[in-house]
Hints:
Blueprint: H1 2-15, H2 20-35, H3 41-50, H4 56-70, H5 73-85, H6 91-107, H7 110-127, H8 132-142, H9 153-161, H10 166-195, H11 205-230, H12 236-254, H13 263-293, H14 296-307, H15 311-326, H16 331-348, H17 353-367, H18 375-384, H19 388-394, H20 396-411, H21 414-423
Amino acid sequence: MEVYALFTVFLVLLALGFPIAITLGMSSLVYLWLTDISFTVIPQKMFSGIDSFVLLCISGFILAGNLMNRGNITEQIIGLSNALLGHIRGGLGLANVSGSMLFGGVSGTAVADTASIGSVMIPGMAKSGYDKPFAAAVTAASSTIGPIIPPSVPMIIVGTLTSISVGKLFLAGAVPGLLLGAGMMATTYYLALKRGYPKEKRATLRELLVHLKTGSWAISLTLFILVGIIGGYFTPTEASVVASLYAFIIGKFIYKGLSIKDLPGIMLSTAVTTASLMLLVGLANVFGWILTSEQIPQKIASAILTISDNPIVVLLIINLLLLLVGSFMETIAALIILFPTLLGVAVAVGVDPVHFGIIAVLNLMIGLTTPPVGVCLFVASGIGGIPMEKVAKAIIPFLICNITILMLVTYIPALSLWLPSMFM
């Protein structure tokens, strides 16, 4: 009865649109009340969930992203992308995708990517002759690249939940991230040709060199982080601090978009975002503890392995489950609740943990753009002032593309494991 009450309250609150952290907390509270377990379990499990050194780097990377974004990073990235690709048919759409690939190395979060790139590109594309639903769909779909290309907040969570190296996960995400970008560029170009979208004036060599010079500072942040971690110069947590310092120097002295007066606001925004994530992590840990005590993970694992122990079939089932969950549940909460269980199932059929980490994160990122609850869809439709239904329809070709890339990454492990095996 208690378990039924747990899931009933969870689903009802989720359907009513409550924040996922509140939903997890309230459903856990109802369960504890019905079972007469002391409410002191809540702070205990919340603290154990966030008591991790690796989690410290979340605030560091969020701070670095805020500093770079306030320091004109978005404009520099979009300017570089336009200079490189604007002259091709559908060039602004291609620049949107490439901008998300470059911005992903700064923010590490899909929603931040959608909001930052979308606020510039959606109105700009509409003004240049693209239909708004397409512009919003490109923005939302390409935002899934951000948490795949390092740094990545979801991968930090995966490393925290398990003994998987965050550095290996960062490296493993590079090739799948590039594949996602290439696939979405191909989709954008095909649709641009089919619909006759415009192309921009070709940038001169001088303009291209200027954009390369100014944009290289932003692009180098991702390389800087990877080289530091691979070379053993600093841990992921230390890398986030170094990245923040780098972002401040670039934003203040190179792009000149930052001022000292901006810092209090940036720090406050970082603190609020970090606190909301930590609250979510803590309450998801309480919910996960309840599921474990009721042996729900074991039942899920047994159910999957009862169907088949063939790795191909098991990974297909897990993909379908994660795509479904990712379409209505926040990524971090889904990882905390499901990842350890599904990792055990995957390892039991011979799947490498690092490879499975990339599969899980990629699934949940695609879920952020999957109707009816995809968060990035809501952000993009809000920026463009477009009905959600139109954006959901326009994003279908990109979902097909992303799921195709997901299948390639799932069944060709070398796409994820090549770089980690080479450097680590």
